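in:
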């Protein structure tokens, strides 16, 4: 059915896992059972149909380098599971910095932090148009509100679909939704929900409690890791949207009142030697029959960036289907299933059914 031409904003760990995955799944051992993907063939599109045609970053170790080099350049530290990448005919270009680099990062070792390049930003809209990009993937750091809005406007001006993988509220914001509807451009977001990550596990366990008649009294989710995402989030001022996104993803599954002070969800700390390994500590306290207490505790350890890459591959292909069908505006089903903070929350079971119906053409969005 042809290629799916994408532009990537932020060539960090998540982009590295995505690009490695696109190549890795070009020759799967068994197409009937492919780990990490909703479907190997999704609406007629395979993972290998995705082609990166433009990439933007601000780090001097990536800007003006080939995409192949940039994917493995520091401070990237995710697992390398597909080292033999082709020589992509794509050079990483300098984007505007805005609020993309947290001030405190300069106090950390070079291999762990962003180092801005001394370059002028390119004309992003022109690059998008010249490259023939159809879909833009936003992988900017958490808290990059102004930078995300800039790239969102660029996507609108260039007529490019937008997948917002970070917790800046675009696809759940009426202002931006209206703009994408007016231009009939697909929009998916906000804040990617990993394959088996802290949020999806917390949501499923919360829904299990509700379905089994447990009343939740307290819950927390604490996450630690050693990638640039966790280093960036040491600045708590950048976490407002992140905490809202993660908290609402869980509380949307609770069918009774729970006081704000009885639920805590969010990053806990940065541990450099963990690199891209993310560890989640989760607890749910509740009451069962006869108001008898119950406590559930769980530890999840996972490589953070590959954990989200397969979900993004599925989101890209759903976005391409919308482009083929000339459907614009926020994709309700894809956003509900793939993202933590969609405009409309559904149970994961219901959201999956909606996505399947969208793929089959049984629902518009």
């Amino acid at each position: 059915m042809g290629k799916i031409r994408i532009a990537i904003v932020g060539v960090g760990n998540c982009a590295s896992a995505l690009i490695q995955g696109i190549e890795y799944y070009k020759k799967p051992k068994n197409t009937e059972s492919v780990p990490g993907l909703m479907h190997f063939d999704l609406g007629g599109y395979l993972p290998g149909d995705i082609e990166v045609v433009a990439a933007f970053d601000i780090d001097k170790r990536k800007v003006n380098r080939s995409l192949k080099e940039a994917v493995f350049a520091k401070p990237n530290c995710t697992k390398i599971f597909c080292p033999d990448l082709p020589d992509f005919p794509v050079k990483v270009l300098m984007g505007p910095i805005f609020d993309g680099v947290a001030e405190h990062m300069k106090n950390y070792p070079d291999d762990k932090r962003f180092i801005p390049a001394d370059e002028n930003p390119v004309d992003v809209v022109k690059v998008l148009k010249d490259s023939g990009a159809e879909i833009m993937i936003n992988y900017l750091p958490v808290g990059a509100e102004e930078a995300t809005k800039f790239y969102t406007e660029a996507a609108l001006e260039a007529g490019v679909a937008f997948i917002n993988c970070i917790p800046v509220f675009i696809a759940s914001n009426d202002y931006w939704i209206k703009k994408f509807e007016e231009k009939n451009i697909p929009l998916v977001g906000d804040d990617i929900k990993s394959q088996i990550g802290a949020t999806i596990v917390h949501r499923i366990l919360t829904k299990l409690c509700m379905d089994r008649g447990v009343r939740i009294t307290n819950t927390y989710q604490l996450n630690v890791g050693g990638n640039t995402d966790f280093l960036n989030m040491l600045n708590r001022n950048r976490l407002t949207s992140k905490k809202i996104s993660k908290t609402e993803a869980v509380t949307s599954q609770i069918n009774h009142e729970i006081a704000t002070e009885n639920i805590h969800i969010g990053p806990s700390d940065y541990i450099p030697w963990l690199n891209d390994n993310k560890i989640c500590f989760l607890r749910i306290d509740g009451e069962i029959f006869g108001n008898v207490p119950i406590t559930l505790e769980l530890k999840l350890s996972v490589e953070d960036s590959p954990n989200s890459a397969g979900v993004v591959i599925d989101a890209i292909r759903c976005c391409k289907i919308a482009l083929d069908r000339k459907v614009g505006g926020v994709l309700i089903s894809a956003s509900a299933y793939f993202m933590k903070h969609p405009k409309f929350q559904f149970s994961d079971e219901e959201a999956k059914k909606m996505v399947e119906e969208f793929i089959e053409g049984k629902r518009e969005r």
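note: The chain has two domains: 4-193+306-360, 198-303.
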